[in-house]
Design a protein that fits this description.
Number of helices: 12
Order of helices and strands: HHHHHEEEEHEHEEEEEHHHHH
Radius of gyration: 23 Å
Length: 364
Amino acid sequence: MGKMPPLTSRGYKPLQMGFEDHLKTLVFFHLEEHKSTQHLLQVLEEDDFARSQIAPKDGIKKSSFSEATNSRGLEQFMYVFKALQEQAVAVLPNRHPELGNLVAIDGSLIDATLSMCWADYRKGSKKAKVHVGFDLNRSIPRKVFFTEGNGAERPFVSQILSPGDTSVTDRGYQCHKSFDLWQEEEKLFICRIKANTRKTVIRTNHVDSDSIVFYDAVVRLGTAGTNQTEKELRLVGYEVDSVKYWIATNRHDLSSEQIAEAYKLRWDIENFFAWWKRHLKVYHLIARSRHGLMVQILAGLITYLLLAIYCHEQYQEKVSIKRVRQLRIQIQNELLSSAFSTDFNAENLQNFKEQNAWCLYAKT
Protein backbone atom coordinates (compact mmCIF):
# COMPACT_ATOMS: atom_id res chain seq x y z
CA MET A 1 0.00 0.00 0.00
CA GLY A 2 1.08 3.57 -0.54
CA LYS A 3 1.71 6.17 2.09
CA MET A 4 -1.29 7.19 4.15
CA PRO A 5 -2.76 10.49 2.94
CA PRO A 6 -2.10 13.31 5.41
CA LEU A 7 -4.94 14.74 7.46
CA THR A 8 -5.32 18.47 6.89
CA SER A 9 -7.56 21.09 8.39
CA ARG A 10 -10.20 22.97 6.47
CA GLY A 11 -9.44 26.63 5.95
CA TYR A 12 -6.98 28.38 8.24
CA LYS A 13 -8.14 26.86 11.52
CA PRO A 14 -5.54 24.43 12.92
CA LEU A 15 -6.54 20.85 13.72
CA GLN A 16 -7.79 20.46 17.27
CA MET A 17 -7.46 16.66 17.11
CA GLY A 18 -4.90 14.84 14.97
CA PHE A 19 -5.62 11.50 13.32
CA GLU A 20 -3.53 9.44 15.77
CA ASP A 21 -5.38 10.96 18.73
CA HIS A 22 -8.72 10.38 16.99
CA LEU A 23 -7.92 6.73 16.28
CA LYS A 24 -6.66 6.09 19.82
CA THR A 25 -9.79 7.66 21.26
CA LEU A 26 -12.17 5.56 19.17
CA VAL A 27 -10.32 2.29 19.85
CA PHE A 28 -10.45 3.20 23.55
CA PHE A 29 -14.19 3.84 23.16
CA HIS A 30 -14.77 0.33 21.82
CA LEU A 31 -12.50 -1.57 24.19
CA GLU A 32 -13.70 0.16 27.35
CA GLU A 33 -17.43 -0.02 26.55
CA HIS A 34 -18.29 3.64 26.93
CA LYS A 35 -21.98 4.38 26.61
CA SER A 36 -21.89 7.74 24.83
CA THR A 37 -19.65 10.54 23.59
CA GLN A 38 -20.21 12.40 26.84
CA HIS A 39 -19.14 9.37 28.87
CA LEU A 40 -16.04 8.92 26.72
CA LEU A 41 -14.95 12.55 26.97
CA GLN A 42 -15.52 12.59 30.73
CA VAL A 43 -13.20 9.59 31.13
CA LEU A 44 -10.59 11.24 28.88
CA GLU A 45 -10.66 14.25 31.17
CA GLU A 46 -10.86 12.60 34.60
CA ASP A 47 -9.17 9.18 34.33
CA ASP A 48 -5.39 9.38 34.89
CA PHE A 49 -4.50 6.73 32.30
CA ALA A 50 -6.88 8.05 29.66
CA ARG A 51 -5.83 11.65 30.20
CA SER A 52 -2.09 10.92 30.01
CA GLN A 53 -1.98 8.18 27.39
CA ILE A 54 -5.01 8.57 25.12
CA ALA A 55 -6.43 12.08 25.16
CA PRO A 56 -4.77 14.83 23.08
CA LYS A 57 -2.10 16.69 25.01
CA ASP A 58 -4.30 19.75 25.48
CA GLY A 59 -7.50 17.78 26.00
CA ILE A 60 -10.45 17.65 23.63
CA LYS A 61 -13.77 19.43 23.63
CA LYS A 62 -17.00 17.79 22.52
CA SER A 63 -17.32 20.17 19.56
CA SER A 64 -13.81 19.33 18.33
CA PHE A 65 -14.39 15.59 18.75
CA SER A 66 -17.70 15.82 16.89
CA GLU A 67 -16.12 17.84 14.09
CA ALA A 68 -13.30 15.32 13.70
CA THR A 69 -15.68 12.34 13.62
CA ASN A 70 -18.36 13.79 11.37
CA SER A 71 -16.34 15.68 8.78
CA ARG A 72 -12.84 14.26 8.29
CA GLY A 73 -10.52 11.30 8.73
CA LEU A 74 -12.52 8.78 6.72
CA GLU A 75 -9.77 8.25 4.14
CA GLN A 76 -7.20 7.72 6.88
CA PHE A 77 -9.39 5.26 8.82
CA MET A 78 -9.95 3.28 5.63
CA TYR A 79 -6.21 3.23 5.00
CA VAL A 80 -5.46 1.83 8.46
CA PHE A 81 -8.27 -0.75 8.15
CA LYS A 82 -6.90 -2.02 4.83
CA ALA A 83 -3.32 -2.06 6.15
CA LEU A 84 -4.31 -4.04 9.22
CA GLN A 85 -6.44 -6.42 7.16
CA GLU A 86 -3.47 -7.20 4.92
CA GLN A 87 -1.26 -7.72 7.96
CA ALA A 88 -3.81 -10.02 9.58
CA VAL A 89 -4.01 -12.14 6.41
CA ALA A 90 -0.24 -12.55 6.52
CA VAL A 91 -0.18 -13.46 10.23
CA LEU A 92 -3.30 -15.53 10.89
CA PRO A 93 -3.45 -19.20 9.81
CA ASN A 94 -5.52 -20.27 6.82
CA ARG A 95 -7.78 -22.87 8.43
CA HIS A 96 -9.49 -24.11 5.26
CA PRO A 97 -6.99 -24.01 2.38
CA GLU A 98 -8.59 -27.01 0.69
CA LEU A 99 -11.80 -25.00 0.15
CA GLY A 100 -10.17 -21.99 -1.47
CA ASN A 101 -10.65 -18.38 -0.36
CA LEU A 102 -14.12 -18.22 1.21
CA VAL A 103 -15.74 -14.83 1.80
CA ALA A 104 -19.05 -14.69 3.66
CA ILE A 105 -21.07 -11.65 2.63
CA ASP A 106 -23.91 -10.26 4.71
CA GLY A 107 -25.49 -7.03 5.91
CA SER A 108 -26.27 -5.89 9.44
CA LEU A 109 -28.78 -3.21 10.38
CA ILE A 110 -27.89 -0.38 12.76
CA ASP A 111 -30.65 1.37 14.68
CA ALA A 112 -30.60 5.08 13.85
CA THR A 113 -32.35 8.10 15.30
CA LEU A 114 -35.26 9.76 13.53
CA SER A 115 -33.09 12.83 13.00
CA MET A 116 -30.82 10.78 10.72
CA CYS A 117 -32.90 11.55 7.65
CA TRP A 118 -30.49 9.86 5.27
CA ALA A 119 -30.99 6.45 6.97
CA ASP A 120 -34.18 5.36 5.17
CA TYR A 121 -35.73 2.08 6.25
CA ARG A 122 -39.48 2.36 6.61
CA LYS A 123 -42.02 4.87 7.85
CA GLY A 124 -41.34 5.83 11.45
CA SER A 125 -38.09 3.86 11.56
CA LYS A 126 -34.55 4.80 10.62
CA LYS A 127 -31.75 2.30 10.17
CA ALA A 128 -28.37 2.18 8.49
CA LYS A 129 -26.81 -0.97 7.07
CA VAL A 130 -23.22 -2.14 7.05
CA HIS A 131 -22.26 -4.65 4.34
CA VAL A 132 -19.29 -6.82 5.31
CA GLY A 133 -17.14 -9.28 3.44
CA PHE A 134 -15.82 -11.73 6.06
CA ASP A 135 -12.75 -13.91 5.47
CA LEU A 136 -13.96 -17.36 6.58
CA ASN A 137 -10.49 -18.87 6.30
CA ARG A 138 -9.11 -16.52 8.98
CA SER A 139 -12.30 -15.29 10.73
CA ILE A 140 -11.68 -11.58 10.15
CA PRO A 141 -13.54 -8.76 8.37
CA ARG A 142 -12.19 -8.09 4.92
CA LYS A 143 -14.17 -5.34 3.22
CA VAL A 144 -16.93 -3.01 4.34
CA PHE A 145 -19.53 -0.83 2.65
CA PHE A 146 -22.20 1.35 4.15
CA THR A 147 -25.73 2.29 3.02
CA GLU A 148 -29.10 3.35 4.33
CA GLY A 149 -31.24 0.58 5.81
CA ASN A 150 -33.00 -0.06 2.51
CA GLY A 151 -29.72 -0.53 0.67
CA ALA A 152 -29.70 -3.60 -1.62
CA GLU A 153 -27.25 -6.33 -0.63
CA ARG A 154 -26.67 -8.30 -3.84
CA PRO A 155 -24.66 -5.61 -5.71
CA PHE A 156 -21.96 -5.77 -3.05
CA VAL A 157 -21.03 -9.36 -3.95
CA SER A 158 -19.14 -8.23 -7.05
CA GLN A 159 -17.56 -5.30 -5.20
CA ILE A 160 -16.36 -7.39 -2.28
CA LEU A 161 -14.96 -10.39 -4.15
CA SER A 162 -11.42 -10.48 -5.51
CA PRO A 163 -10.36 -12.87 -8.32
CA GLY A 164 -10.29 -16.42 -7.01
CA ASP A 165 -12.58 -15.71 -4.04
CA THR A 166 -15.83 -17.60 -3.43
CA SER A 167 -18.77 -15.75 -1.90
CA VAL A 168 -20.78 -17.68 0.70
CA THR A 169 -24.26 -16.21 1.15
CA ASP A 170 -27.70 -17.02 2.57
CA ARG A 171 -31.10 -17.11 0.85
CA GLY A 172 -31.40 -13.33 0.81
CA TYR A 173 -28.86 -13.26 -2.01
CA GLN A 174 -30.74 -15.71 -4.24
CA CYS A 175 -31.32 -14.09 -7.63
CA HIS A 176 -31.16 -16.02 -10.87
CA LYS A 177 -30.00 -12.99 -12.86
CA SER A 178 -27.23 -12.49 -10.31
CA PHE A 179 -26.17 -16.13 -10.66
CA ASP A 180 -25.81 -15.59 -14.42
CA LEU A 181 -24.03 -12.27 -13.92
CA TRP A 182 -21.55 -13.66 -11.42
CA GLN A 183 -20.67 -16.48 -13.79
CA GLU A 184 -20.18 -13.98 -16.63
CA GLU A 185 -17.86 -12.02 -14.32
CA GLU A 186 -16.11 -15.27 -13.39
CA LYS A 187 -17.13 -14.82 -9.75
CA LEU A 188 -17.38 -17.97 -7.67
CA PHE A 189 -20.34 -18.40 -5.32
CA ILE A 190 -21.94 -20.76 -2.81
CA CYS A 191 -25.48 -19.57 -2.07
CA ARG A 192 -28.32 -21.18 -0.16
CA ILE A 193 -31.62 -21.06 -2.06
CA LYS A 194 -35.27 -21.61 -1.22
CA ALA A 195 -36.31 -25.25 -1.05
CA ASN A 196 -39.26 -24.73 -3.43
CA THR A 197 -37.12 -23.25 -6.21
CA ARG A 198 -38.00 -24.89 -9.53
CA LYS A 199 -35.10 -26.73 -11.15
CA THR A 200 -34.48 -28.38 -14.51
CA VAL A 201 -31.98 -31.23 -14.21
CA ILE A 202 -29.31 -31.47 -16.88
CA ARG A 203 -27.27 -34.26 -15.32
CA THR A 204 -26.87 -35.81 -11.89
CA ASN A 205 -23.72 -36.54 -9.92
CA HIS A 206 -23.08 -39.57 -7.72
CA VAL A 207 -24.05 -39.28 -4.06
CA ASP A 208 -22.80 -41.71 -1.39
CA SER A 209 -25.57 -43.41 0.56
CA ASP A 210 -23.96 -42.68 3.94
CA SER A 211 -23.39 -38.97 3.28
CA ILE A 212 -25.31 -36.00 4.69
CA VAL A 213 -25.64 -35.00 1.02
CA PHE A 214 -28.79 -36.35 -0.63
CA TYR A 215 -28.69 -34.43 -3.92
CA ASP A 216 -26.00 -33.30 -6.38
CA ALA A 217 -26.81 -32.26 -9.93
CA VAL A 218 -26.13 -29.74 -12.68
CA VAL A 219 -29.30 -27.74 -13.26
CA ARG A 220 -30.96 -24.58 -14.45
CA LEU A 221 -32.94 -22.81 -11.76
CA GLY A 222 -36.33 -21.16 -12.21
CA THR A 223 -39.16 -21.39 -14.69
CA ALA A 224 -38.34 -21.39 -18.40
CA GLY A 225 -39.41 -18.16 -20.08
CA THR A 226 -39.86 -16.40 -16.74
CA ASN A 227 -36.88 -16.38 -14.41
CA GLN A 228 -34.76 -19.36 -15.44
CA THR A 229 -31.00 -19.09 -15.29
CA GLU A 230 -29.35 -18.91 -18.68
CA LYS A 231 -26.24 -20.65 -17.45
CA GLU A 232 -26.00 -24.06 -15.87
CA LEU A 233 -24.97 -24.32 -12.24
CA ARG A 234 -24.54 -26.97 -9.62
CA LEU A 235 -27.16 -27.69 -6.96
CA VAL A 236 -26.25 -29.58 -3.79
CA GLY A 237 -28.75 -30.69 -1.15
CA TYR A 238 -27.75 -31.84 2.33
CA GLU A 239 -29.50 -32.41 5.65
CA VAL A 240 -28.40 -31.57 9.21
CA ASP A 241 -30.61 -32.03 12.28
CA SER A 242 -33.68 -32.66 10.10
CA VAL A 243 -33.16 -29.37 8.22
CA LYS A 244 -32.58 -29.58 4.48
CA TYR A 245 -30.26 -27.10 2.80
CA TRP A 246 -30.18 -26.42 -0.94
CA ILE A 247 -26.95 -24.82 -2.15
CA ALA A 248 -26.46 -23.26 -5.60
CA THR A 249 -22.84 -22.96 -6.71
CA ASN A 250 -20.47 -22.84 -9.65
CA ARG A 251 -17.73 -24.64 -7.70
CA HIS A 252 -17.43 -27.91 -9.59
CA ASP A 253 -13.96 -28.63 -8.21
CA LEU A 254 -15.19 -29.40 -4.67
CA SER A 255 -16.93 -32.55 -3.50
CA SER A 256 -20.55 -32.22 -2.43
CA GLU A 257 -19.48 -32.70 1.21
CA GLN A 258 -17.01 -29.84 0.85
CA ILE A 259 -19.78 -27.61 -0.54
CA ALA A 260 -21.83 -28.42 2.57
CA GLU A 261 -18.83 -27.73 4.82
CA ALA A 262 -18.18 -24.38 3.12
CA TYR A 263 -21.76 -23.23 3.59
CA LYS A 264 -21.78 -24.29 7.25
CA LEU A 265 -18.80 -21.96 7.80
CA ARG A 266 -21.05 -19.04 6.86
CA TRP A 267 -22.34 -19.06 10.43
CA ASP A 268 -19.01 -17.49 11.44
CA ILE A 269 -20.11 -14.09 10.07
CA GLU A 270 -23.26 -14.25 12.20
CA ASN A 271 -21.11 -14.98 15.25
CA PHE A 272 -18.85 -12.08 14.31
CA PHE A 273 -21.72 -9.60 14.06
CA ALA A 274 -23.17 -10.77 17.39
CA TRP A 275 -19.81 -10.64 19.21
CA TRP A 276 -18.82 -7.32 17.64
CA LYS A 277 -22.09 -5.66 18.63
CA ARG A 278 -22.20 -7.08 22.15
CA HIS A 279 -18.61 -6.79 23.33
CA LEU A 280 -17.19 -3.83 21.38
CA LYS A 281 -20.40 -1.75 21.48
CA VAL A 282 -19.88 -0.66 17.88
CA TYR A 283 -23.54 0.33 17.47
CA HIS A 284 -23.67 2.77 20.40
CA LEU A 285 -23.97 5.83 18.20
CA ILE A 286 -21.44 8.60 18.73
CA ALA A 287 -22.14 10.09 15.29
CA ARG A 288 -25.30 10.92 13.39
CA SER A 289 -23.96 11.73 9.93
CA ARG A 290 -23.31 9.12 7.24
CA HIS A 291 -19.62 10.11 7.32
CA GLY A 292 -19.34 9.92 11.10
CA LEU A 293 -21.06 6.56 11.37
CA MET A 294 -18.70 5.09 8.77
CA VAL A 295 -15.74 6.38 10.79
CA GLN A 296 -17.19 4.72 13.89
CA ILE A 297 -17.73 1.41 12.05
CA LEU A 298 -14.18 1.45 10.67
CA ALA A 299 -12.77 2.11 14.15
CA GLY A 300 -14.70 -0.92 15.43
CA LEU A 301 -13.30 -3.09 12.63
CA ILE A 302 -9.78 -1.83 13.31
CA THR A 303 -10.19 -2.72 16.98
CA TYR A 304 -11.33 -6.23 16.06
CA LEU A 305 -8.39 -6.77 13.69
CA LEU A 306 -5.92 -5.66 16.34
CA LEU A 307 -7.53 -8.07 18.77
CA ALA A 308 -7.35 -10.90 16.22
CA ILE A 309 -3.62 -10.37 15.68
CA TYR A 310 -2.96 -10.03 19.41
CA CYS A 311 -4.95 -13.13 20.44
CA HIS A 312 -3.23 -15.26 17.80
CA GLU A 313 0.32 -14.11 18.50
CA GLN A 314 0.00 -14.19 22.30
CA TYR A 315 -2.30 -17.18 22.80
CA GLN A 316 -2.74 -18.91 19.40
CA GLU A 317 -6.47 -18.32 19.82
CA LYS A 318 -9.29 -16.54 18.06
CA VAL A 319 -10.71 -13.34 19.52
CA SER A 320 -12.57 -13.99 22.78
CA ILE A 321 -14.21 -11.90 25.49
CA LYS A 322 -11.86 -13.58 27.99
CA ARG A 323 -8.84 -11.95 26.36
CA VAL A 324 -10.62 -8.61 25.98
CA ARG A 325 -11.40 -8.63 29.69
CA GLN A 326 -7.75 -9.32 30.43
CA LEU A 327 -6.82 -6.26 28.42
CA ARG A 328 -9.38 -4.14 30.23
CA ILE A 329 -7.93 -5.23 33.57
CA GLN A 330 -4.39 -4.48 32.44
CA ILE A 331 -5.25 -0.86 31.77
CA GLN A 332 -5.99 -0.56 35.47
CA ASN A 333 -2.59 -2.01 36.37
CA GLU A 334 -0.22 -0.53 33.81
CA LEU A 335 0.76 2.85 32.48
CA LEU A 336 2.59 2.33 29.23
CA SER A 337 4.65 5.49 28.98
CA SER A 338 5.43 5.12 25.29
CA ALA A 339 2.44 3.09 24.25
CA PHE A 340 0.82 5.68 22.05
CA SER A 341 3.82 6.95 20.06
CA THR A 342 2.57 5.75 16.70
CA ASP A 343 3.48 6.57 13.10
CA PHE A 344 1.10 5.24 10.47
CA ASN A 345 3.42 5.83 7.50
CA ALA A 346 4.03 2.95 5.12
CA GLU A 347 7.75 2.87 6.02
CA ASN A 348 7.03 1.13 9.31
CA LEU A 349 3.86 -0.69 8.34
CA GLN A 350 5.64 -4.03 8.86
CA ASN A 351 5.89 -3.17 12.56
CA PHE A 352 2.35 -1.81 12.71
CA LYS A 353 1.08 -4.17 15.35
CA GLU A 354 4.14 -3.88 17.63
CA GLN A 355 3.94 -0.09 17.49
CA ASN A 356 0.23 -0.22 18.20
CA ALA A 357 0.37 -2.23 21.40
CA TRP A 358 -1.43 0.74 22.93
CA CYS A 359 -4.60 -0.35 21.20
CA LEU A 360 -4.58 -3.57 23.20
CA TYR A 361 -3.22 -2.34 26.55
CA ALA A 362 -0.66 -5.12 26.54
CA LYS A 363 2.99 -5.63 25.68
CA THR A 364 3.48 -7.68 22.51
